[in-house]
Amino acid sequence: MTEKKLFLTFSILNLVFTVYILCNDSTTWSPRWTNSAAAEAEDAASVSCSGHGRAYVDGLGVLDGNKPPCECNNCYTGKDCSVLVSDCPVDANSGNPLFLEPFWRRQAEKSAVLVSGWHRMSYIYQDGSYISEELERIIRKLHKVVGNAVTDNRFIIFGTGATQLIAASVHALSQINSSSSPSRLLASIPYYNVYKEQAEFFDSTHIRFEGDAYAWKKSKGDDNITQVIEIVTSPNNPDGKMKRAVLEGPNVKTIHDYAYYWPYYSPISNLTDEHLSLFSLSKATGHAGSRFGWALVKDKGVYEKMKRYITLSSMGVSRDTQLYVLQLLKVVVGDGGEEMFHFGYETLKKRWEMLNKIFSMSTRFSLQTIKPEYCNYFKKVRDFTPSYAWVKCERREDPNCYEILREAKITGRGGEMYGSEESFVRLSLIKSQDEFEQLIDMLKKLVSQEVAGADSI
Amino acid sequence: MTEKKLFLTFSILNLVFTVYILCNDSTTWSPRWTNSAAAEAEDAASVSCSGHGRAYVDGLGVLDGNKPPCECNNCYTGKDCSVLVSDCPVDANSGNPLFLEPFWRRQAEKSAVLVSGWHRMSYIYQDGSYISEELERIIRKLHKVVGNAVTDNRFIIFGTGATQLIAASVHALSQINSSSSPSRLLASIPYYNVYKEQAEFFDSTHIRFEGDAYAWKKSKGDDNITQVIEIVTSPNNPDGKMKRAVLEGPNVKTIHDYAYYWPYYSPISNLTDEHLSLFSLSKATGHAGSRFGWALVKDKGVYEKMKRYITLSSMGVSRDTQLYVLQLLKVVVGDGGEEMFHFGYETLKKRWEMLNKIFSMSTRFSLQTIKPEYCNYFKKVRDFTPSYAWVKCERREDPNCYEILREAKITGRGGEMYGSEESFVRLSLIKSQDEFEQLIDMLKKLVSQEVAGADSI
User: Fold this and answer.
1) Cβ of B58 and A17 within 8 Å?
2) For residue B256, which of B148, B181, B387 has the smallest C-alpha distance?
3) Residues of chain B with CATH 2.10.25.30
């Protein structure tokens, strides 16, 4: 009887095992041609870089069959980025938005995308355009959930970064009225240096960079003939302030650069509704490397001219990039931006608290201040937490602030790059946590010298 | 005894099963965060489109949770592309290189790439550049295995398609000597229309498109002062012939557009060794949609100017695209290009045989002819099998060849777009097999009318 029972038990057990194995082999999803790509990605992601770097599938040496190496954050070195270089200079120059990287690492599963070797080989999507309709839809959705821009009755154009769209929009607007003299491109000081550099480098016969919009208003305020294009960056790069157009009139066209108009950096205080606005993936999700931006355009003629510009300069944006961006924005829009914007905002808020604390102890250096405003996104009054510190050296004996900071081993960008004075420097606050902490350490040192210096007087 | 044996057998079996399950769960590779991306890709790839279309992961409606729909080849319709539209007009206009799609479908596993949500978010690679070193290496390797270009002592620049690099190189060369009058851009007729369109649209003060290089040589052959840039497209678009520079002299700069210099289209008769050459992924692997091209540049000054152009227009090429291209080229270089170039060449060879057969029956239409040459890649004398048929309408009463073909439901590109005469039309031969077969059918009809007409006389 006992043996019979045991026999029965074993039989049942065997049956259960057999069914388990069969089911496991047949009904669970078993990847096939995607196997090795997935394994490669997992391998790279599993390389440990001590939290101070990361390895990428296309890292140096992978063609030789090597495991992708760690690429370390600034001031970290060693095979696994575990060695901190002491007294290492801080790079606060670039607006590299790596502060959002931790968020995307947490969203590993949802944000991953597998590109097949035959993905959209054609020049065109099925509607004959260079633009993914699904991506266009999700961009409209993104603006809706954030509440930063009206997208109804707007054309959308994609660019290889907002960079390409700045050039395209300036070019399109400069060709609206082909008067004999070129259109003047203006922006109020301090302004993003690329506006000037592009206009001067591309040397179109139809455009000339003319500098400060306020200066123009003062000297040529009555000129209703010369065609003028003003770029309004709001929040502004470098100082994070909300900007409005300085110029108006029948001869004035305006481009609104809203690259920084996201809840991380500033309150979303109003739903913008302009003729031509630019946005950049870099500052929206942190993917600067993907080179993706978009424009919202009201006027059909301007839209057509911009489209022609994008066609002739690059025949649109890479279709694999468009697929990638779609996947990223699916994650963002999925929860109404909740997790990403909160994470990013909390990160920058903490950074600004630390920064303000340091600068509050200084009379030699000052920071920009911006009054809190109500944010329609977070539904509360909140501080501005801009991407950049716009530092001023207050002493007469410190005319060149960039140099002062550089001596203290902090590399920023000098005010003159923004049409402003050398007493200003822009410091990037949106890089990795490591880099921000290095910046804080160096700033502490610098400011403590000042206090110590005052004590010794 | 028998029961004991059975008992033992069952025990062992249970042990084996247990071990199997444990091992299966722990030691085989089990994908984790890559799971759903892989499943999504497999799902899309498994959509059946009757061999006349394909579904992509970012197809219309996926945001609503729908399965990606079939996107059908021209003249096919229905949910699964199984319905052939009768008497449907043929589109032989675009140089969409879908003839290589079947190759990439066969290479599904090797060519797939999984992009993580935190892939290279930074503006720069670790060396501070916008260029993947591994990708640069494999491009040099590709040229080595094909034998179409010297890459030693050359700088490599990436562009958002060769399109962007045409603009960048023309711009760079026009700024070498800043004389008061603009550089003249020339190309010998028939030439690729984008050269002209870019120069005219971007309206740089330093460049003016001047048309035919032969005409310039004839009228200004002695002018050693005016700065001149000649673009040499070889094999040529539209007619597939090998071209040499027409102009020379101290005031002449040359850009070699080698977009079509791959074994599919022409014999690789010599290892090119020029100052500035352009290549395009579109015509090399068929990935027109990925917008990727590269330039080989000898002179450091020109290289720096081109780099500056790429920086100011787009801050380099999307890092996810660079990863994708690396994966594709790994497949190609893996077997020395063997499989891809053979497949592509055999495809075009068959297409040209069919085409030649049809045109041999016509006196009304003629095709370009190019003498066979020895190909260093295939190690044999072989025919040219260009991407495009350069059709001439031979009759006086057919002055506009584009219109003649359009009436016969074949859309090509008129000769005047290439600076040539209206008696020429370019027909694309590198689209999908479906589209080529439609073209052949329509051409047969057209030519048979001619024969029937002759019979009736």
Assistant:
1) no
2) B148
3) 49-88
Fold category of A338-455 in CATH: Aspartate Aminotransferase, domain 1 (3.90.1150)
d(CA B312, CA B172): 13
Query: How far from B348 is each of A36, B236, B356, B365, B435, CA to CA, in Å?
Result: 31, 16, 12, 20, 13
For residue B121, give the nearest of A97, A164, A314 by CB distance: A97
Pairing verdict, β A183-187 and A207-212 = parallel
Interface test with B, best of A64, A314, A329, A332 (most B CBs within 10 A): A314
Nearest-CA distance B366 → chain A (Å): 29
Q: Which of A56, A94, A117 sits opposite B120 (nearest CB)?
A: A56
- Closest-CA residue to B97 (of B428, B446, B444): B428
Interface check B378 vs A, CB under 8 A:
no
Give the integer Cα–Cα distance in Å for A344 and A370. 19
pLDDT tens-digit profile, chain B (457 residues): 566 666 666 666 666 665 555 445 444 456 699 999 999 999 999 999 999 999 999 999 999 999 999 999 999 999 999 999 998 999 999 999 999 999 999 999 999 999 999 999 999 999 999 999 999 999 999 999 999 999 999 999 999 999 999 999 999 999 766 567 899 999 999 999 999 999 999 998 899 999 999 999 999 988 989 999 999 999 999 999 999 999 999 999 999 999 999 999 999 999 999 999 999 999 999 999 999 999 999 999 999 999 999 999 999 999 999 999 999 999 999 999 999 999 999 999 999 999 999 999 999 999 999 999 999 999 999 999 999 999 999 999 999 999 999 999 999 999 999 999 999 999 999 999 999 999 999 999 999 998 676 554 4
Strand, helix or coil at B88? Answer: coil
At the second CATH level, the architecture of B133-334 is 3-Layer(aba) Sandwich (3.40)
Q: Whole-angstrom Cα distance, residue A274 to residue A290?
A: 26
Does the N-terminal peptide bond of residue A97 adopt cis geometry, omega within 30 degrees of 0? no
Check B39 against A33: CB less than 8 A apart.
Answer: no
Contact: B62, A134; criterion CB under 8 Å: yes
Give the residue range(s) of CATH 3.40.640.10 domains in chain A. Answer: 133-334
Contact list in A for residue B121 (CB cut-off 8 A) is: 96-98, 100-101, 104, 286-290
Verdict on whether the full-model pTM lies above 0.95:
no
CB atoms within 10 A of CB A60: 18
- Which homologous superfamily is A49-88 in? EGF-like, alliinase (2.10.25.30)
CA distance B408 to A452: 89
State the Cα torsion A79-A81-A86-A89 to the nearest 10°.
110
Residues B204, B175 contacting (CB under 8 angstroms):
no
Distance CA B51, CA A119 (A): 16
Are B198 and A132 an interchain contact pair (Cβ–Cβ within 8 Å)?
Answer: no
DSSP 8-state secondary structure symbol assigned to residue B39: H
Beta bridge partners of A208: A184
Name the amino acid, one letter, at A296: L
Kindly give the pairing relationship between strand A424-428 and strand A388-393: antiparallel
Q: How many contacts (CB atoms, under 8 Å) link A and B? A: 367
Whether residue B111 contacts residue B287, with contact meaning beta carbons closer than 8 Å, is answered with no
Q: In sequence order, what E strands does B38-176 have?
A: 53-54, 71-72, 76-77, 83-84, 90-91, 113-115, 155-159
Please state the ipTM of this predicted complex: 0.93
Round to whole Å and give the CA distance between B254 and A132.
37
Instruction: Identify whether the C-beta of residue A384 lies closer than 8 Å to the C-beta of residue A235.
Output: yes
Cβ pair A42:B60 closer than 8 A: no
Distance of CA B124 to the CA centre of its chain: 27
